[in-house]
Design goal:
63 residues, 0% strand, elongated
């Protein structure tokens, strides 16, 4: 079974910032905006899962 790659939160945030700039650019086509928004949704979901997991790990350590 292949080893699961660790989530890179900082890289995800950097990609989200790049996506935001691309979407705000008036020269970006509607198809590119659609793809960018779909990718942003994936990244936001992954970031939320990562943060929830981190919070749960900290909570467990406090007990």
């Amino acid at each position: 079974m292949p080893k699961k790659e660790a989530f890179d939160y900082a890289a995800a945030i950097a990609e989200l910032e790049t996506i935001a700039a691309r979407v705000e650019d008036p020269s970006t086509g509607i198809d590119d905006i659609d793809r960018s928004i779909r990718r942003a949704q994936q990244l936001v979901g992954a970031c939320r899962r990562y943060l929830r997991s981190s919070r749960d790990n900290l909570t467990a350590l406090e007990k």
